[in-house]
Amino acid sequence: MAGKFTIGLVQMRCTPHPKDNLSRAVERIEEAARGGAQVVCLQELFGSQYFCQREDAALFDLAEPIPGPTTNVLAETARRHQVVVIASVFERRAAGVYHNSAAVLDADGSLVSVYRKTHIPDDPLYYEKYYFTPGDLGYPACDTRVGRLGALVCWDQWYPEAARLVALRGAQVLFYPTAIGWRPSEKERHGREQYDAWRTIQRSHAIANGMYVAAVNRVGHEGPPKGGLEFFGGSFLCDPFGVVIAEASHDREEIVYGVCDPARIEEVRRNWPFLRDRRIDTYGALTARLID
Amino acid sequence: MAGKFTIGLVQMRCTPHPKDNLSRAVERIEEAARGGAQVVCLQELFGSQYFCQREDAALFDLAEPIPGPTTNVLAETARRHQVVVIASVFERRAAGVYHNSAAVLDADGSLVSVYRKTHIPDDPLYYEKYYFTPGDLGYPACDTRVGRLGALVCWDQWYPEAARLVALRGAQVLFYPTAIGWRPSEKERHGREQYDAWRTIQRSHAIANGMYVAAVNRVGHEGPPKGGLEFFGGSFLCDPFGVVIAEASHDREEIVYGVCDPARIEEVRRNWPFLRDRRIDTYGALTARLID
């Protein structure tokens, strides 16, 4: 087991200009590396504003292959600063086959893993089923220079099954690049409980699995002034018992830092041995839609 | 779908005298019924002090069949007060085959469901693997006069798989009779995070599944004055989005009440349609011990 390492979570606003978003992301990775981060995770689809607020076939132009222009730039940044980078990319796999993907770039710039979002939402202002076909790469974890990491994407964060499968593959940290916000009309009434549910479900994955969990969300309002989405930030890192050890604001661009200590994973799993007592002989029906 | 109903959670101390514990439990059910409860849940193994703090073959004498003396008394109480009762019983099934079980007694006194604890802990002062063989009745949900209910037991509460399977069977409320406490030597340093992890993981089951979750824990110190366990109470009911709507203290006997509203389940599941998007084609490996 490798030693401790420092994680940096980059919480950004996005502009309508992909080149601007990418260049600012590179700057933030550089800043995080200078700040001591050995792994940097960017938010979901950081290269653009959250285009899924509407269905428009022209927006498929935003997609690109992996490896491709964005991961090439980030791989060079990773190599130059010797930092692992987790990057969310709108992936064009073929004409008509697009994914919402997360690439893991090791500290030498090599592309070590791609994950394609499996759980795809479709709700007003989150029309993702139109853009993204579900992934077919399972729920991977991969070895990097610092340790074994997993990355899922946003809506996946509500599914204990997905987190468990990453944990069973040995991930020490599970990252969730995210784009979740409040509808301005709902914020006053429901905003607090929405944010709290989002934070709670992800902390629960840390607890259930004895691993670190990091969520990286965007900030800022996008869309029409009286509508659209106010992305609620609140990026955080929690330890293997769900204790939040670093947390960002709801409205500012920030980099938050926290340390992953494999000894803490060992300690928590010895004292709360949930993985020991899983009753795998009783879980077969989890592949059922309902039991009715 | 049935209408709203009121839940009462009975948080008690236990004495070394089973008859005393049973008679006080009956009084609390009566009090809860007078207070408006239509479903009352008792804590785990309310009939005795938490005997699993040591391994002693003589303590198997505490066990009894289901139906048996305890469920007969509670069935009569349920019938007399027209209230559903969820009761945790140390079940003797045969010589050498004992379970930690939860019985659901309908408001007419009929025994409608038995669940046998599946995930069995074994940790210092929680030597349950010595006493309880794992259940073989799956993860049931059952129809009662008020609605469809599920009951798991204590250590099960740390397993998202078990909660999901009860939800897939249509439970509106999932109850967890519990006996969890602080070791006095650890309380100051770890007590707060232990309680918070316990509360968080159960709230997460409500969120992931869009159902109400109720945890019912005991209070009081049991065992040698300088050792033993201080059961931390904190019994609570949360709604299908994880919002805590009723919560008990850490140190007092109490009955806490809350309302289960099927319309709230409907509302939450329409707006956060997690069950719609489960990717059941990708969950097969959940029956693996590890993926290595």
Highlighted features:
homodimer; six-stranded mixed β-sheet; 15 strands; globular; 292 residues; 6 helices; Nitrilase/N-carbamoyl-D-aminoacid amidohydrolase; alpha/beta
Please give a structural write-up.
- The structure is a homodimer.
- Chain A is globular.
- Chain A has about 290 residues and is an alpha/beta fold.
- In chain A, helix 1 (about 20-35) packs parallel to helix 2 and helix 4 (about 160-170) packs parallel to helix 5.
- The first copy, chain A, has helices at about 20-35, 70-80, 130, 160-170, 185-210, 260-270; strands at about 5-10, 40, 85-95, 95-105, 110-115, 140-145, 150, 175-180, 180, 210-215, 220, 230, 235-240, 245, 255-260.
- In chain A, strand 13 (about 235-240) and strand 14 form a beta hairpin.
- In chain A, the strands form 3 sheets. In chain A, strands 5-4-3-2-1-15 form a 6-stranded mixed β-sheet. In chain A, strands 6-7-8-10-13-14 form a 6-stranded mixed β-sheet, covered by helices on one side.
- The interface between A and B is large, with 53 and 53 residues.
Provide a compact summary of the structure.
2 copies of one chain form a homodimer. Chain A is α/β, with parallel strands linked by helices.
**Overall residue-averaged pLDDT value of chain A:** 97
Order of helices and strands of chain A: EHEHEEEHEEHEEHEEEEEEH
Globally, the shape of chain A reads: globular
Main β-sheet of chain A, in a few words? 6 strands, mixed
CATH homologous superfamily of chain A? Carbon-nitrogen hydrolase
Helicity level of chain A, as a percent range?
25-40%
State the low-pLDDT regions of chain A, or none: none
Number of helices of chain A: 6
Q: Report the C-alpha radius of gyration of chain A, rounded.
A: 18 Å
Under the CATH scheme, which class of chain A? Alpha Beta
> What class do helices, strands and sheet pairing of chain A give?
alpha/beta
Strand order of the largest sheet of chain A: 5-4-3-2-1-15
